[in-house]
Amino acid sequence: MEEKDALVLLNGWWKSGKVSEDLAKAYKRKVFDEAWGLLNKHRQVLLITGLRRIGKSTLLYQLISSLIGNGIKASNIMYFSFDIASAEIVKILNAYTSLTGIDWKKERVYIFLDEVQKLKAWSSQVKLIYDSFPNIKIVLSGSASLQLENEAKSNLAGRYFVIDIKPLLITEYYELKTGKHIDRFELYEDELRNDLENYIKKPFPEIVNWESDAEIKMYIKESIMAKITRGDLPDIFGSVNFALLEGLLTLFYSKPGMIINTDKLASDFQVSKTTIENHLFYLEFAKLIRIVKNYRVNISTASRKLKKVYPYDASLALAIANVEWPYVIETVVASALDCNYYWRMGTKEVDFVMTNPLVPIEVKSSHAIDDEASNALVYFIERYKAGKGVLVYNGEGERKAGNIDVLPLVRLLIQAHI
């Protein structure tokens, strides 16, 4: 598709003066306020990343709609998606000027570029425009977060802010599903707990009201995972072994938290160790898996051995595998806290470790806990002088046991921090 055709198709507000409600959804996620503040207060590029179908494009449309609502002329806002077509940014901007008469080199304009990771050398192009034309405000989005952030660090240092959009919070899920606004979670905690399993299966905006497990799984497999493994990754890296990617996902998703043994994986899948390592990188790059390293005081040694692998989100695993509930709960906690470390020493182990501040976290899937559940936490706290530990369980009632916070899973998800 030619640039002009794509721009006319994608920028309906140039004619109508407003963004369609089908694009700029009425419900705004909590990340909207953060993005809106950065868009208006700072000149820096705004980089929005996250998994496919998580709501990145919706956020862009909501920002565009709010700009128009706050008096910005509709023709001074340009949106382009590299999912639709590909061209150098300057060529797109020249086509924009040809269509609208807006001189992007002189006038105050807002440029929204979606799925920008599909454009080769995008960061150097953005840097040139940013440095040369201070009248332009640039907002970027993309699904390949690792690539986007690495390129931004290399070419846009000091020139950007990044927002990584996660799957729906449990409160966002409930608000979208019911139309209610939660201002005090204490009033809704029972309802959230009762709907916890449904939330875990479908934390994506489009499917919160879907009831069919088969349709939910198909959506996640086809609209998210297949788009990544058979579309995004080959587009970016070229040579990708689809069967290997899908085999690794099936293995990892069946037992979240397994130790990665690249030699054994290479033998089992009959490929080289380098191929395994490359495809592990692809999966992490695309936010399909999360690598969790064994914690050591010297963090640089943590990455050398005993890495664990989890699904990036539990819903991904549940779409293709029969996952035992304890592993589901571990994955949910890892995702909610964005965990990067666990701890193992001899026979002692703690599920996750947060490092700033240092907090060990143990996860239990049971509805009740006994005194032995916190033994590893106590040992870790004493050994590393941590201020506290957290024991997450699938029951009700928050309390303290010495310097350990005993926290119900639903309360952790509501607070989304420790």
Q: How does this model look, in words?
A:
- The chain is 45% helix and 18% strand.
- The N and C termini lie far apart (48 Å).
- The chain is of the alpha/beta class.
- The longest helix has 25 residues, at 213-237.
- Strands 6-8-7-9-10-11-12-14-13 form a 9-stranded mixed sheet, with helices on both faces. Strands 2-3-4-1-5 form a 5-stranded parallel sheet, with helices on both faces.
- It is globular, with a radius of gyration of 23 Å.
- It has 18 helices and 14 strands.
- Helix 1 packs across helix 5, helix 12 (242-254) crosses helix 14 and helix 12 (242-254) packs across helix 15.
Main sheet?
Answer: 9 strands, mixed
Q: What is the approximate shape?
A: globular
Give the low-pLDDT segments: none
Q: How many angstroms does the end-to-end distance come to?
A: 48 Å
Strand order of the largest sheet: 6-8-7-9-10-11-12-14-13
Summing up helix and strand content along with how strands pair, one would put the structural category as alpha/beta
The count of helical stretches stands at 18
Strand portion, in percent?
15-25%
| Radius of gyration computed on alpha carbons | 23 Å
Mean pLDDT metric = 92
Roughly what percent helix? 40-55%
Give the number of DSSP strands.
14
